[in-house]
Amino acid sequence: MDRSMKNFLVAAALPLALSLAVGCGGSTPSESSPEDSVSTGLDDLTPAPPSMPGQDDPPAEPVNPGMMLPDDVPLPDPSEINEPRESNGEKPKGMELPDDIQPVQTSSTAAGESLGMIVGTQTKSEDAAEVKLNIQLAPWQEIDAVTKQAGRITVVDFWSLSCVPCLREYPQLVALQKKYPDRVRAIGVNVDFYGGEKYPPKSYQPQITKFLTAVHATFPNYISQTPSEDVFKSVKINALPAVLVLDEQGTVVERFTDASHSGGFTYEDDIVPLVEKLIAK
């Protein structure tokens, strides 16, 4: 190849080399750094963080604090909780006694003998109508004055139709009074009335009458018109059953309650021996 041909080839190749050095299309490189390009790419691939409560998602359910009563629903009366209802929907007045209750047949008045069971399985006895009761409604102040009258040993039994131990022991009071009619004054005080207007003291009288008739309790029996809590405070007792024994001067000799006597008390083991001890003086 001669010199003229070499010069021609060099001149033709120079523009091509310059074109490759400038880049494809001859465009100017972008001013953005590689870090910017990588960052932009990662932003597109990274998932969005979860939304916080109170933004797009509905609020979470609150933790259940337990059973709640509506504001307009009153709490039940403690005296009516778990108590059975009669067929007409009314609350029974104290403990229900069977319609065919058998009046208790009294045994002889020999020492240690009692009236037997309160509720029997036989039919009504004809002498039930012959039992003459002495039931009075009175405030505790009047009843208290009677219990403190001097002259005889006085046994005051505080009881309720809903107190099963009271009902079981009550015939023993009847037997005690019958055994010593001239020396012992027996007084029964029913404290079913708790102060509510819906069930006044007189509302308990039908069931009280049925029970007292069954056990032949002909001595004075009072239905307290003073709320039971106030009676308890006055007598200094805190629960039923409870019995007071007063001497012939009207002074309290002993208060029998489950709290004051460990393991409870009974007429046979506790009250009768005390009364007979007072009689023997």
From TrEMBL:
<dbReference type="InterPro" id="IPR012336">
    <property type="entry name" value="Thioredoxin-like_fold"/>
</dbReference>
<dbReference type="InterPro" id="IPR036249">
    <property type="entry name" value="Thioredoxin-like_sf"/>
</dbReference>
<feature type="compositionally biased region" description="Polar residues">
    <location>
        <begin position="27"/>
        <end position="40"/>
    </location>
</feature>
<keyword id="KW-0201">Cytochrome c-type biogenesis</keyword>
<keyword id="KW-0732">Signal</keyword>
<dbReference type="GO" id="GO:0030313">
    <property type="term" value="C:cell envelope"/>
</dbReference>
<dbReference type="Pfam" id="PF13905">
    <property type="entry name" value="Thioredoxin_8"/>
</dbReference>
<protein>
    <submittedName>
        <fullName>Thiol-disulfide oxidoreductase</fullName>
    </submittedName>
</protein>
<dbReference type="GO" id="GO:0017004">
    <property type="term" value="P:cytochrome complex assembly"/>
</dbReference>
<keyword id="KW-0676">Redox-active center</keyword>
<feature type="region of interest" description="Disordered">
    <location>
        <begin position="22"/>
        <end position="97"/>
    </location>
</feature>
<dbReference type="InterPro" id="IPR013766">
    <property type="entry name" value="Thioredoxin_domain"/>
</dbReference>
<feature type="compositionally biased region" description="Basic and acidic residues">
    <location>
        <begin position="82"/>
        <end position="96"/>
    </location>
</feature>
<feature type="domain" description="Thioredoxin">
    <location>
        <begin position="96"/>
        <end position="280"/>
    </location>
</feature>
<feature type="signal peptide">
    <location>
        <begin position="1"/>
        <end position="24"/>
    </location>
</feature>
<dbReference type="InterPro" id="IPR050553">
    <property type="entry name" value="Thioredoxin_ResA/DsbE_sf"/>
</dbReference>
<keyword id="KW-1015">Disulfide bond</keyword>
